[in-house]
Amino acid sequence: RRFGDEVVELECDALILTTSRVPDDALYWELMERSAEWGEAEIGGVYRIGDCVQPRHALDAIFDGHRIGMELESPDPQRPLPFIRERQIWGAPTIPKLGDARPVVEGELLV
Asked: Which domain, by its residues, includes 53?
């Protein structure tokens, strides 16, 4: 982007505009209108992710797809589960589970 009012014309074969700030959710709403048919097709739910929620960077949309794939069988896949942070602690289990107490090693609470 350049300051000023100078116009620059560029020759190109294709142009991709990435300026939309409106969610592309038409397919979601069409599927919601057909929710009566879900039982026959064994569809348990339809969830909004990526640009259906709001336009954003491609990496964020890709992460949405990854997250919903990992959490599809959670009680409410539309709401993200909290992250489980992996911490390597000498003398303690290295794979924490959600809701675990903080590990104690040799009588000391590790923070």
From this structure: 1-80
- Tokens in use for 106? 């040799």
Report how many domains make up the chain: 1
Task: Indicate which CATH number applies to the domain containing 44.
Answer: 3.40.50.720
Give the Cα separation of 39 and 21 in Å (integer): 34
Closest CA to 44 of 68, 18, 23, 8: 68
Q: How far apart are CA 61 and CA 56, in angstroms?
A: 7
Residue 87, in any domain of the structure? no
pLDDT (tens digit per residue) in 58-105: 899 899 999 999 999 888 898 888 877 666 666 665 566 666 666 555
pTM for this one?
A: 0.56
Report yes or no on 4 lying in a domain: yes
Nearest 5°: phi and psi at 64? -55, -45
**Looking at beta carbons, which pairs linking 85-90 to residues 24 or more positions away fall under 8 Å?**
none
